[in-house]
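Suppose a colleague, Dr. K., hands you the sequence of a protein chain of 135 amino acids and asks what its three-dimensional shape might be. Before reaching for any lab equipment, you can write down a predicted structure in token form. Begin with the sequence itself:
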Amino acid sequence: MDSKEVWRFAKFVGFSASAGVIEMGSFALLNETTGWSYWPCYLIALTLSVLWNFTLNRKFTFRSAANVPRAMMLVFAYYMVFTPATTWLGSHLADGLGWNEYLVTAINMLLNVSTEFLYQRFIVYRHSVDSAVRA
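The predicted structure, expressed as tokens, is then:
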């Protein structure tokens, strides 16, 4: 991995951390105020963080001029797998086994950042990284 890719990964992690603040904050707000089970709180919080993260990473991390609807559909495809898997896992751990909801959400967030960078870099933006860079 060259220094440019290391820097790109560092930016991705930074933006993901900001999305993590949004996700954990909205999860905490919903979890503490609604009385809902784990899964609806998690799904709403995840959706908010995905929208934030997609926008920032497309523009600043991957600097892509790729077709936005196509990129969004590819990210949507990733979340069609990730979301049910982590919702089921989270619900099983938090509601079924009594694990702390915040620990479960943090585990899901770590799974997300580690898999999503690879997916976005090598599938979503594979041919369009740095295509929006101005001369």
